[in-house]
Amino acid sequence: MPSARSENDFSQPREDKVDCPTEGEKENLRSTIKSLGYAGTLAYGFLNTLYYGVGLVIAWIFFCEAPRGLSLREFTKTFMQTAAFTWAGSQLTKGFRAAVAIALAKPVDALIRRTSMKLNVDYGKVVMMYAAACVAAVFACIASLALIWCFK
What angle do helix axes 72-119 and 123-150 make, rounded to 10 degrees? Predict the structure, then answer.
């Protein structure tokens, strides 16, 4: 009869499994974010921007070990591998990001409203402005990697 496994015994594989969100729980998070409107969607977008911007740079620097002075073709090939690696990692954090987006929806809504009033711009246009800033931030990270690694 096997003995009870201690907390620090890593010699045997664990028989219990990590609790990942079920499809029903994922759908519940999706519908909750959708019900929060633009603010919930934008909060999730902010978190995706943060994840992909930082994740791409960290994966590039620490995992890809790409040499400097790459040609554009070599950079693109290595970058696509890095992007795939980062995307795979994003699947592990999707539930967490969705839950945090739900928590951040009210502050993001307040930010949108405050910006809308201060700039005297329609709410929807402010949402699009922030969404464009998120996309631009990730592309800036990618462009920075290209400039740093493609030129000696």
Answer: 150
Structural domain boundaries in the chain: 37-150
> Is 50 exceeded by the pLDDT of residue 5?
no
106-111, Cβ contacts within 8 angstroms, sequence gap of 24 or more:
106/39, 108/39, 108/40, 108/42, 108/43, 108/46, 109/36, 109/37, 109/38, 109/39
Other Cβ atoms less than 10 A from the Cβ of 25: the count is: 13
**Is a pLDDT exceeding 90 seen at residue 46?**
yes
User: In the chain, what is the straight-line distance between the N-terminal and C-terminal CA atoms, in Å?
Assistant: 62
What is d(CA 101, CA 24) in angstroms, rounded to the nearest whole number? 18
Higher-scoring residue by pLDDT: 148, 30: 148
Q: If you ran DSSP here, which 8-state letter would residue 67 be given?
A: P
Q: What is d(CA 92, CA 62) in angstroms, rounded to the nearest whole number?
A: 19
Distance CA 128, CA 141 (A): 20
Predicted model pTM: 0.72
Is residue 134 a contact partner of residue 48, using CB atoms and an 8 Å limit? Answer: yes
**Is the pLDDT reported for residue 18 higher than 60?**
no
